[in-house]
């Protein structure tokens, strides 16, 4: 059997079953946004890694080297944020075809450095290898106070489901990059394309959520709303109901999808790369008033297993998680 036949999710479960028995010192291994390791005092170490591969995760005709450096670091910081923590040190590995321009490497590091200054991350080393295609891998270390860590496994029936910001903009930005013929105001196109090319991690928001002990479970929306929510459901052993008419959407996203006659729900559920925070909270907390930034309640946790979408007409239907899978989708 090939990995392409079982898909990314099943492959991860297979790997998890192999390595779990050898996990002795780590507090959390495969199954969350980062690994969790006991630190000094009341602090825990968070450890994550992510790779962007040419023609799989990006195409050079759409993205600059500066933007790629920014995005490569951003997606790792977002994982740390989803645990309620903060990033500290990064290692960067570059796979470079021999004809890669030196200016390309320099611009990649400029992108990473500009974001690292905003997020207080130090780039402290890495590796360079020859490769037939370009790739960048970042391994990121972070920390979180042991009483403030947020896992995917804490959701309980009755909890409400919230998301920061808006959803679907990054996927719509990718559509705009592929369809230059779409007539848009320059500022609208810039907004959407930037959401795809240069996501801004919700680190400040995540730290506030963890400090105020709001979330019972949390994840960042990297693969798509339905897919990422499903990770929480699996780890928490619960189900969920989400409300289509409550999905937060930017006006620019609405404009493009309306012109293309595309379903916003489809893009929101499966588009991915918004890097918003998707979290659950107990129902008796007035989350919107407690937090100092925009969040939207979009559903609730239920005992019945599975994921259910309630449409604008109030009809309830079971849906499967949809989103990015390395062995079934390509850009």
UniProtKB/TrEMBL annotation:
One of its GO terms (biological process) is thiamine diphosphate biosynthetic process. It catalyses: thiamine phosphate + ATP = thiamine diphosphate + ADP. The keyword ATP-binding applies. Mg(2+) 4 binds at residues 33, 48, 79. Keywords: ATP-binding, Kinase, Magnesium, Metal-binding, Nucleotide-binding, Thiamine biosynthesis, Transferase. Mg(2+) 2 binds at residues 50, 79. CDD domains: ThiL. It is an enzyme of class 2 (transferase). InterPro entries: PurM-like_C_dom (IPR010918), PurM-like_C_sf (IPR036676), PurM-like_N (IPR016188), PurM-like_N_sf (IPR036921), ThiL-like (IPR006283). Pathway: Cofactor biosynthesis; thiamine diphosphate biosynthesis; thiamine diphosphate from thiamine phosphate: step 1/1. Substrate binds at residues 57, 273, 324. Mg(2+) 1 binds at residues 49-50, 127. Residues 156-306 form the PurM-like C-terminal domain. The keyword Ion transport does not apply. Mg(2+) 5 binds at residue 223. GO terms for molecular function: ATP binding; magnesium ion binding; thiamine-phosphate kinase activity. Belongs to the thiamine-monophosphate kinase family. Catalyzes the ATP-dependent phosphorylation of thiamine-monophosphate (TMP) to form thiamine-pyrophosphate (TPP), the active form of vitamin B1. Reaction mechanism of ThiL seems to utilize a direct, inline transfer of the gamma-phosphate of ATP to TMP rather than a phosphorylated enzyme intermediate. This is Thiamine-monophosphate kinase. It comes from Aerophobetes bacterium.
């Amino acid at each position: 059997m090939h990995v392409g036949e079982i898909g990314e999710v099943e492959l991860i479960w297979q790997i998890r079953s192999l390595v779990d028995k050898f996990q002795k010192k780590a507090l959390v291994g495969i199954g969350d946004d980062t690994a969790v390791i006991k630190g000094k005092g009341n602090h825990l170490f968070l450890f994550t890694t992510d790779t962007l591969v040419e023609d799989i995760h990006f195409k050079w005709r759409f993205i600059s080297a500066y933007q790629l450096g920014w995005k490569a670091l951003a997606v790792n910081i977002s994982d740390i944020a989803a645990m309620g923590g903060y990033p500290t040190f990064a290692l960067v590995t570059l796979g470079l075809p021999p004809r890669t321009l030196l200016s390309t490497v320099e611009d990649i590091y400029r992108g990473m450095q500009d974001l690292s200054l905003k997020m207080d991350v130090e780039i402290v080393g890495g590796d360079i290898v020859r490769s037939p295609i370009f790739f960048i891998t970042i391994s990121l270390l972070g920390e979180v106070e042991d009483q403030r860590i947020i896992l995917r496994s804490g959701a309980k029936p009755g909890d409400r489901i919230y998301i920061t910001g808006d959803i679907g903009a990054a996927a719509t930005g990718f559509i705009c990059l592929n369809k230059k013929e779409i007539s848009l105001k320059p500022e609208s196109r810039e907004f959407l394309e930037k959401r795809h090319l240069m996501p801004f991690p919700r680190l400040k928001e995540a730290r506030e959520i963890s400090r105020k002990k709001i979330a019972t479970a949390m994840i960042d929306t990297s693969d798509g709303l339905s897919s990422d929510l499903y990770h929480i459901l699996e780890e928490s052993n619960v189900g969920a109901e989400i409300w289509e008419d409550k999905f937060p959407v930017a006006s620019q996203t609405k404009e493009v999808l309306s012109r293309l006659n595309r379903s916003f729900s489809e893009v929101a559920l499966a588009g991915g790369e918004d890097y918003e925070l998707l979290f659950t909270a107990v129902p008796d907390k007035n989350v919107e008033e407690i937090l100092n930034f925009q969040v939207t309640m979009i559903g609730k946790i239920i005992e019945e297993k599975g994921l259910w979408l309630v449409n604008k007409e109030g009809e309830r239907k079971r849906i499967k998680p949809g989103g990015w899978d390395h062995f079934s989708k390509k850009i």
